[in-house]
Write a structure and sequence with these properties.
alpha+beta, five-stranded antiparallel beta sheet, three-stranded antiparallel beta sheet, 3 helices, 8 strands, elongated
Length: 221
């Protein structure tokens, strides 16, 4: 069984497989916007407008009892009165909503990602998305572009290299962590011998801050 698993997946580690899909957030939100706009155009009582480049810098409650709106949003383009506000800024929520700050609220955590090219063709590399190392690492191959034979693989994780802090409460997206980057570069060549080159520099490397409301530092094997 072990030799078959190595031949099929390239690694002999125990695992389980389950159906799943990737969501492209921008496409999903664009689809929802177009759906909402179409619905509004067919309605005499509602409409939908999209304001880009309009960051909300503050939120204040409207105390005027005669107002039909409950919230006042402050933006560089002027205030916006609203009855309801959908706050979808993930780890940055506490910037405008201080009661969500701290361990009892939304905990920001910086995640680091690299895009690295596999050393083998798409036919040899398994076309699946993976998580490993107790969920610390996740990776998946991108579809091939014209003229390419070896897939570009997106790999994120490596925070175990920063314990005991694990990049919790870090919101600086302007720099990468060298210890995390080193862990990411070594991960796939160790898990899939021969399918990734040792000491190969990634084609891209970046960080993103996400929320971790229930996560706490943990040990990693």
């Amino acid at each position: 069984l072990s030799s078959w698993v190595v031949q099929e997946y390239g690694a002999s580690y125990p695992a389980f497989r389950t159906p799943g899909y990737n969501i492209w957030p921008l496409k999903l939100v664009t689809h929802l916007y177009n759906l909402g706009k179409t619905t509004g155009e067919n309605s005499s009582t509602s409409s939908l407008h999209l304001h880009t480049n309009t960051p909300v810098t503050a939120i204040a409650a409207i105390s005027d009892a005669t107002s039909a709106r409950r919230w006042n949003l402050i933006t560089p383009r002027g205030p916006i009165a609203a009855s309801y506000v959908l706050h979808a800024t993930n780890a940055y929520a506490s910037h405008l909503l201080p009661h969500l700050r701290g361990p009892s609220g939304i905990v920001p955590v910086r995640g680091q990602i690299i895009a690295t090219r596999a050393a083998v063709s798409e036919q040899i590399l398994t076309r699946s998305a993976f998580t490993g190392n107790e969920g610390f690492e996740y990776w998946f191959p991108r579809p091939l572009e014209p003229g390419q034979t070896n897939p570009l693989v997106i790999l994120g994780g490596g925070r175990e290299a920063t314990k005991p802090t694990f990049e919790l409460y870090v919101t600086d997206d302007s720099t990468v962590n060298s210890a995390v980057g080193d862990a990411l570069r070594k991960f796939l060549p160790a898990v899939f011998p021969g399918k990734y080159e040792d000491d190969k520099e990634p084609e891209m490397e970046w960080v993103r801050t996400k929320s971790s409301p229930c996560e706490r530092p943990r040990s990693s094997s």
